[in-house]
Amino acid sequence: MNSLRRNVLKGAAGAGTVAVAVAAGLLKPGQAFAAYPRSAYEARSLADAMKNMGVASPVDSKDIVIKAPDIAENGAVVPVEVTSGIAGTTAIAILAEKNNTPLVCDFSFKGGAQGFVSTRIKMGATSLVRALVTAGDKTYVAAKEVKVTIGGCGG
Amino acid sequence: MAEPMRIRATMQGDVADIKVLMNHPMETGQRKDAKTGQLVPAHYITTVTATLNGAPVLEAGMGGGVSRNPYLGFKVKGAKAGDKVAVNWVDNTGDKNAAEATVG
User: Fold this and answer.
1) Residue B20 falls inside a structural domain
2) CB contact under 8 A, B74 and A121
3) Cβ–Cβ of B76/A113 closer than 8 Å?
4) Which residues 113-142 of chain A have a CB within 8 Å of chain B?
5) What distance in Å separates the CA atoms of residue A49 and residue A51, rounded to the nearest whole number?
6) Which end of chain B is more exposed for a tag (fewer CB within 10 A), N or C?
7) A66: part of which helix (H) or strand (E)?
8) Is A13 among the domain residues?
9) B76 within a domain of the structure (yes/no)
10) What's the ipTM?
């Protein structure tokens, strides 16, 4: 067993320690596996969220397939499925452009995990859902518009 | 204490299709209580880790934008029937939960 991986995973259990390391600037969010990119999740705009994730200029890719409804009646539960056909995909992030905090979730893959993820997200208003895919040291992006009839973020 | 979570892992060819359903309110911290007009405090899962036979396969970060009772589906190549899938989550209050299932 790869001992480094085990240590990194143990680090995930001590999430507080990681948060301190991030705050102190020791770890750049998005760089270390298991470091929760808090600043990216708290960012209020798409540009800030991407900046805090360390994503500079993603390349448009047709190899990313976003499966989401064209019209979501209930913005509180929007099923989203992202499949990356890009070889060597290591991470997928899902962003809803007009949400108060656009970054919804991010996934990094290890071992035999495929570049595929399926989840359900909240959307405040009709907007683009973006999927950022990291493969090697490059980032790719795809987008799909989802129309929301009733927003799921306010109340 | 957190409610249990459910994991279903099935083989599809040489790929394990793993589905996880977690029980969590996923409060964003931006919603107001209809009765009191006060903001409902943020309470959401921040990190989910999944392992296959002890080796990490997926690390997920989440914000308040994930729906209540989060659903997570992912696929792992090279798994086989009988392998153990374990999923752990931690939320922003430090609460945590773990569950295990066998690939079938």
Assistant:
1) yes
2) no
3) yes
4) 113-114, 116-123
5) 5
6) N
7) strand A64-67
8) no
9) yes
10) 0.89
Could you please report the per-residue DSSP string of A70-129? SEEEETT-EEEEEEE-STTEEEEEEEETTSSS-EEEEEEE-TTEEEEEEEEE--SSSEEE
If you average pLDDT over residues A105-119, what whole number do you get?
Answer: 93
Contact with chain A for residue B20, Cβ under 8 A: no
Query: How many domains does one find in chain A?
Result: 1
Interface with A, mutate which of B12, B75, B77, B80 (most A CBs under 10 A)? B75
Please report, for the domain that includes residue A119, its CATH number.
2.60.40.2470
pTM over 0.95, yes/no:
no
**Number of independent structural domains in chain B:** 1
> Nearest by CB to A154, which of B31, B52, B62?
B31
Q: Are B95 and B2 in contact, with CB atoms under 8 Å apart?
A: yes
Q: Give the residue numbers spanning the domain of B29.
A: 6-102
Confidence at residue A154, expressed as pLDDT on a 0 to 100 scale = 57
Tell me the pLDDT band of A19, cut-offs 50, 70 and 90: very low
Q: Which of A55, A53, A61, A49 has the alpha carbon at shortest distance from A96?
A: A49
Please report how the helices A15-23 and A3-13 are oriented relative to each other, as an axis angle in degrees rounded to 10. Answer: 90
Q: Which two tokens stand for residue A1?
A: 């067993």
Residues of the domain holding A74? 55-150
Asked, for residue A79, whether it belongs to a domain, the answer is: yes
